UniProtKB/TrEMBL annotation:
Location(s) in or outside the cell: Nucleus
GO cellular component, one term: GINS complex
Gene3D superfamilies the record matches: 1.20.58.1020, 3.40.5.50
CDD domains in the record: GINS_A_psf2 (cd11712), GINS_B_Psf2 (cd21694)
Major location category of this protein: nucleus
Stated name of the protein: DNA replication complex GINS protein PSF2
The family this protein is said to belong to: Belongs to the GINS2/PSF2 family.
GO biological process assignments: chromosome segregation; DNA replication; double-strand break repair via break-induced replication
Residue span(s) of domain DNA replication complex GINS protein PSF2 N-terminal: 12-71
Keywords noted in UniProt: Chromosome partition, DNA replication, Nucleus
Length: 184
């Protein structure tokens, strides 16, 4: 959702990707490595061809050095995304997706597209999902009232996109409600 510059006060998409880089992801290491301690925790040991779960930022680093293959999460498949898109188009609410699906999928498709099957179809499905969810967000914001807004199953990127508009609109609605209350 594109907003005017005056309403863009949220975290930027690259900052959200940085936050999402703490997500654990499965890899198939191509090198052996002892257990290594980082500020965020200890990870490893890595022993090929045994799978290991490590933070996305380490997986990206290893992948760029050609020292691992990244295993795509279950939700980053044509079947899963197609079922969520069908649900999105047929149901009134938002379909359940991982909270940081947008950020993680972008990073994985940029860095590890050779480890993911059907990347073109996945990109297309992610784009269609995004557009369908944005349309629902716009519809929901058109019916905005001061007492309730239910937007369960939104992702971090979607929340970040509507936050500035929502905060501004709720401020105006609260002000109008307060003025209407004092006139009575």
């Amino acid at each position: 959702m594109s907003l005017p510059q005056s309403l863009r006060t949220s975290i930027t998409p690259p900052e959200l990707e940085f936050i999402a880089s703490q997500q654990l992801i499965e890899i198939i290491p191509l090198i052996a490595m002892e257990k290594t301690a980082f500020i965020s925790g200890a990870f490893g040991p890595l022993q090929p061809p045994r799978r290991a779960k490590i933070p996305l930022w380490i997986a990206i680093n290893l992948k760029l050095k050609k020292k691992c293959h990244i295993v795509a999460p279950e939700w980053l498949s044509v079947e899963f995304l197609q079922s969520r898109l069908d649900e999105e188009l047929s149901e009134p609410g938002y379909s359940r997706l991982p909270f940081r699906y947008a950020e993680v999928s972008k990073v994985l498709l940029d860095v590890a597209s050779d480890d993911i099957q059907n990347t073109d179809k996945i990109r297309s499905l992610l784009k269609d999902l995004r557009e369908a969810r944005q349309a629902k967000s716009r519809e929901g914001l058109e019916e905005l009232n001061r007492s309730e807004l239910s937007l369960s199953n939104l992702s971090s990127m979607e929340i970040n996109e509507i936050r500035p508009f929502f905060v501004h609109a709720m401020g105006i609605l609260t002000h109008l409600h307060r003025d209407a209350s004092t006139e009575d």
